[in-house]
Design brief:
By secondary structure, this protein is α+β, with helices and mostly antiparallel strands. The chain is built from 4 helices and 5 strands.
Length: 149
């Protein structure tokens, strides 16, 4: 009788632990459409909208490192053909899984060519901020498109 009681309690505890998992097995068609475009999309280590928007925004620059789990994008030096004596290098860090303004940081380095030597030069304070705004706007547009689609 004691073993029967133990088996019943054990089965009850197991069912109690597994019951919440039963709700996870539904098909994708059971899921609301807006759920697919939630502000927290994390099939990679960081917010997928911020990641895609960052890559799209910087696609004209050569990439040195892209780490979707760590949320880091590092570009190589890029010289605008209209300003060949100046070049920029960017590091984008996605700091969170949520689509938020404070989840994104852009750091820029700038060099100018003087007598054949690349010399570090100051970056305008607004440069990183403007790039962050462009990426955030693009990420929000990607999310809106996902909701509408």
């Amino acid at each position: 009788m004691a073993s029967r009681l133990f088996r019943s309690v054990s089965t009850g505890l197991l069912l109690t632990a597994l019951l919440p998992l039963a709700a996870c097995g539904g098909g994708a068609k059971d899921r609301p459409k807006a759920d697919l475009a939630a502000s927290r999309v994390t099939t990679i280590g960081v917010n997928a909208y911020l990641w895609r928007a960052s890559l799209d925004t910087l696609s004209f620059m050569p990439m040195v490192q892209t780490d979707s789990n760590g949320g880091v994008i590092v570009t190589d030096w890029y010289a605008n053909p209209n300003s060949p004596n100046e070049r920029m290098k960017l590091t984008v860090s996605i700091l969170d899984q949520d689509l938020r303004a404070d989840a994104l940081r852009v750091a820029a380095s700038r060099q100018v060519n003087q007598n054949g030597q690349w010399i570090d030069a100051p970056v305008k304070a607004a440069t990183g901020q403007k790039l962050e705004e462009v990426i955030l706007t693009k990420a929000r547009d990607l999310r809106r498109t996902a909701i509408a689609g």
